[in-house]
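Exam review. A common question shows you a sequence with its structure tokens and asks you to describe the fold in words. Practice with the pair below. Do the first one on your own.
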Amino acid sequence: MTLAGLSLRDLEYVVAVAELRHFGRAAERCAVSQPSLSAQIRKLEETLGLALFERTSRKVLLTPRGEPIVAQARVVLDEARRLMALADGSDGRLTGRLRLAAIHTLGPYLFPHILPPLRSIWPDLTLILSEGRTDALLEELRDGRIDAVLLALPVESDGLVAEPLFFEPFLLAHPIGHRLCGTPDLLLGDLDAGELLLLEEGHCLRDQALAACGLTARGGGVHATGLETLRHMVAAGAGCTLMPLLATRGVDGSTAGVGGLVEYRPFDGGKPPGRVVGLVWRASDPRDRGLRELADLLRRGTPAGTEPLLSQKVD
């Protein structure tokens, strides 16, 4: 086997199929026809002398021998991007493509705020946005499948750079006519744990809500799969919940109230419950300078009602 049988483009094809588990969608991402992509992957498999994928009529799976090959392909592609960054004179600035992800409870509400300034300052930067849960996104980040993540800090940052951006308070979301509607000076102690609605396990916001209310993880009860379902459960009168500030309003500042059925109220009594939102990327990324510039931009343009943060403010 010689290096002449390998190409970076073929490795991009392999990684795309491994991530999307679909040859057609992988071909669309790589801007190539599906027959061409399939043929090149077959050729690469012949060169390597092994099958990378298990192909069925329903899905595409990585073979056991294919998993380490794809992992190493990501490393090779990452190093190739590092080489190009050094060669094009960008000096670590953001150029080309940036794969930016966010946790489910943040992305839909923060992306509309940050896209206009990003497009204005880096018009030639190609943004690829995605969402997921914290653990899965950090795994994708470490594997090189994404470049940076917007999530709640702190996180295990071995090999990563974690820059805090802002503190986002939680508001109480309760249905109109709820017993707390007329309560002055709302405190966390006013909540009834039995009526607290939560996201299902695996969402960091669930753990943050439980911690804010001084509760331990609990099973049973009714849980929502996403923040919008949680909001509608509140509107239906099923209970109340802690809602991140950005999720309570539109980009224009209007209230996301599900037809006026949900009321949002801030907590009194000192610092409100909330979360620290930060930007995380690999410490080895050659665009460290540009990613720090991105963090500074996001910090300076924090949405109304949030508090910009400096690094030393995160424990």
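Now try the second one, then compare your answer with the model answer below.
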Amino acid sequence: MTYLLFVLGLVALFFGGELLVRGATAVARHFRLSPMLIGLTIVGFGTSAPEMLVSVQAALAGQPAIAIGNVLGSNIANILLILGISSVIAPLVIPVKKLWRDLGFMLLATAVIWIMLLDGAVMRLDGVLLIAGLVVFLVTAFLTSKVEDIEVGQGDVVQWKAWAMTLGGLIVLVVGARLLVNSSTELARAFGISEAVIGLTIVAVGTSLPELATSLIAAIRKQTEIAVGNIVGSNIFNIFAILGVTALIDPIPADPRFASVDMVWVSASALGLSILAFALGGLPRIAGVALLLAYGGYVVLI
């Protein structure tokens, strides 16, 4: 039964990802918004819904190792694993002129949470500051976004269908991720794997599967702005919103290893993506291979 749930979850993820990319692209065209903005907000935040659910539930259940490990592990997996796989399948172009501000927000969010974890806990006041950071990011993103000169053609999806596809895709992604996380966690516990490692790997990768499905499909459909914006927006949302909301519910004590080990990888992956974006203007296949090798090294380390 566990294996069946795993397969059903996988199918739901890729079906939901296809719906989400098609719907979000149609919404962007209708409102003449850039695919990058849609990727950073609707797609990026929407695909982070599983991380939000898992982290809040973990906090309420008194399991902070899974709550924090889920977010940090997801941010590592988003860049090293998901962008790695996506760029190996289809090299990604990163429009630095459009994304430099958002890469800066991602680096800022990473630095802020690292400083908070050095104290050994993310307190309620920290949660307020993180939520404030999210509000500043959203306001800045929409105020500085430019209307795209896009010609709306007869072949475009009708708007109510586009919104239905977008919302339906998000719901299917959340359900699929939940099925995969539950089944994978049961299998891992059967093999005696600790909760901290489960949070950093299986749960983190499991809740990042919507991002994987969405970015892969976007890359295949040549919607590279959505593929990259999805990951950057998701990483920002994971820190500002998920850890912010979780800390407001209940202060989160943090194991020292999060600040001394895992944050090094979170910061290195975020900084590495930014350097590649500015130096190469994207992620060629060789960069994707390097990202995948780095993720393999991280998994072996923990």
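Model answer, second protein: The chain is about 80% helix and 5% strand. Residues 36-145+192-301 form a domain with the A middle domain of Talin 1 fold (CATH 1.20.1420.30). Full marks require stating both points clearly.
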